[in-house]
Amino acid sequence: MLLNIQPWQKRAETRVFAGFRHILRRTYHLPNGAETDFEIKHEPHAVCVLALTPHNTVLLVQQFRPGPEEILLELPGGGVEPSEDPAQAAARELLEETGYRGELELAGTCWHCAYSTMFKHNFVARNCVKVQEPALDEHEFVRVVEMPLEDFRSHVRGGKMTDVAGAYMGLEKLQLL
């Protein structure tokens, strides 16, 4: 039997925690008549960039990630500031984290996860060249890594990064899947 899915009715929303991330508690009235709470990460929009050099290497940032408590190789990226559009944020994050600039193009967008308000804008950058040293924030400690494209495809398939969806969208946009 197929159900006619409708949005749930939100009954209440309260802020549970405000820090680097904000946590909201949302109470919903469910289709079966029950009411239940969900904890939601309230986060701004974000960007990530699959950046290719003229030598067909992918620029990655190696950094410790506190969620999985591991050092990961990831696409450069970060939050979209209130005064920025996503393309500006992508260019800024690429430059700050790697010191490179390139020809940016949107590859696609996606939700971060079912329990977050973050919407991720995934970009590709072609012909990336180094124009300065990275200019990192006080909480960023990264090493820039250039990975051959073939190795990058294997890395993405391995799932040991937080931006797998952005990587696949970028590879598809560049017709490199």
UniProtKB/TrEMBL annotation:
Keywords in alphabetical order: Hydrolase
The UniProt record lists the keyword Ribosomal protein: no
Leader sequence segment: none
Positions of the Nudix hydrolase domain: 41-169
Cofactor(s) named in the record: Mg(2+)
Family membership noted in the UniProt record: Belongs to the Nudix hydrolase family.
Protein name from the UniProt record: Nudix hydrolase domain-containing protein
Protein source organism: Ktedonobacter robiniae
